[in-house]
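Re: beginner question about structure tokens

> Can someone show what the tokenized structure looks like for a real chain? I only ever see the sequence side.

Sure, here's an example I had lying around. Input first:
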Amino acid sequence: MSHDDFPTDRPAVVTCGLPYANGDLHIGHLRTYVGGDVYSRALERLGQETAFVSGSDMHGTPVAVNAEQEGVSPEEFALDWHERYAETFPKFNVDFDNYGHTHDETNTEITQQLVRDLDEAGHLYEKEIMVAYDPVDDQYLPDRYVEGTCPYCGAHARGDECDEGCQRHLEPGEVEDPESTITGNPAEYRERTHKFFAVSEFADYLSDFLDRLEGTSNARNQPREWIEQGLQDWCITRDMDWGIDLPGENPQDLVLYVWVDAPIEYISSTKQYSERVGADAFDWEAAWKEGVSDDHPEGGEIVHVIGRDIIQHHTIFWPAMLEATDHAEPRAVMASGFVTLGGKGFSTSRDRAVWADEYLDEGFHPDPLRYYLATNGGFQQDVDFSWEKFAERVNTELVGTVGNFLYRSLLFAHRNYEDGPDADAPSDEVAARIDEAVEEFAAAVNDYSVRALGDAVTDLARYGNEYIQRNEPWKLVDEEPAEAERVIYDCVALAKAIAVLFEPLAPEKSERLWAQLGEPGTVHEATVEAAREGPAGDLSEPTELFEQVEDERVEDLNEKLEARVAESEDGDGDESDDDGGEADGSAADENDDDTDDTDMTDIEPLSDDRISFDDFQELDIRVGRIEAAEGIEGADDLVKLTVDLGAETRTIVAGLKQLHDVSDLPDTKVIVLANMEKAELFGVESNGMVLAAGEEADLLTTYEDAGPGTKVK
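And the corresponding structure tokens:
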């Protein structure tokens, strides 16, 4: 691993968290996979040697339970879902170099060898622990078969995680007042011998690792709290029949915890890719193992793209395992926010979701959804999906900005210049603007911002619309034909640059544009240097790349969705499976049969205390725009904001550092309580309060174009 700007001369591996082989994919799941695919393609456009890998997570309790309910083996059940995922991802142009699964021979061998290496290095030990047992049903209970009370914060918790409270990972036996989720019987704890990984020995290493780690700020900041609280050693075995067997002596027939073999699939999938294409094309060992490459003994550039619900696994347990076995540590972790639906969490069991197949069945092209998911907010921020918002982004940005420039430019060029306009090179102005777009693209890659990758393209297309409008070549054709041809050559050069830079977000549409430009080969193999080269192909008659989404279509889609959700809710009045916004589900959430459903029963009831209208009038609530943002030294959560309130600019301190990417905050429109008492925090005077919703600090904003200083009333 290096910390040099991409591209580097080391092999890079981009991974996505493993989907749990237990149910259909919806667009909330797709956010992470699209993000990983966009980032991997962007690295390749820069000329970085890259492998993009993932696989299906096959193990865990719900697979075994659901397989039994369907009367099939767990392997058959999980393989069926694995094959469905392998067919679905390409439909959204998510192009893994290798997509494996955790139950295959490669992952089984590598997992068992890595566990042996941990044991031989003295990092594993046996310990008698208390395991939940159902005395009525006479069976030991794996952690997801147990629920009770978190011993750290007192919230209701699953057997392996305080999912409704402090989010802390819980070891077997820690949950208080345990009950069986199978029978509802009170459980009791009985002693069993299990294997533990001494994660606590790696606390200093992990603290330093987080200092080096790149990616989204939530992936760096959240794990620090767990380290400061004191790391607990990690139980890596479970009382189950389904999983990878613990290697060596195993008298109790234990299997490895699913979170042991799940991330190892990243290595296994990369190895399978190398075996298919040859080590000369991509050397998996040089990427993953330390000491293999003489030039780069630290290994390659490993980038994990995950949902934020599995940050702990990828920044604590996984790097400790890699460090203990002489593997390369991750260079970056990109943790995405969740996707909600109309402000409410996705619910798979209640059918409140936009399913992946449903989107395609409606006749939509995959690339507009890729663009929407990649660019609608910072990667670590939550995204609220609605058909109205989707249509607005498509119509305004893809049709109105990018598509409009490309079609009008190429149609004019095709009609007026038989083989395309001729010039030696783009004008200095246009060449400089293309260079600027390429630099913005490279900066977005090195900032781990898929949104900025899209901005680089739409800004370039916006410039193209302004350029052609300013120069009006249609007026120059008769009076100054040479100047008209130069202008249109510039526009075609801009179109070629857009084809290259837009490929990561809209690969299929970019390939179609490449063909219209008559460029040789495929845009998927073009690097950013091709964006700087003038057009050389024979133009074909263009067609419009993107289609408008009409209002009537949006109304029809909403009606279908509402009817489907209502029908599901009529069948079951229990609302306890709402996501509450945690709808990513894009990684191996251990042993969860409905990974994106979170109990909403902990929402605070509405207050019975009322205020008068006059009291409300005393609140001076204004629209603001963040002009600048920077972290405050010594404060884990606080950010110093410079906020434009129209009449004046103020400094406001807000607790956003761990929940938002600070670099994404400038230009964000926010709602500010302007007559809040001043306060001094860490030596900075705060003059106002930025309003946000919930524990994830979902920033309040305006729906349309109210400017800074507008009063909220």
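Each token stands for a local structural state, so reading them left to right follows the chain. The chain has three domains: 1-123+198-365+575-603, 383-532, 613-699.
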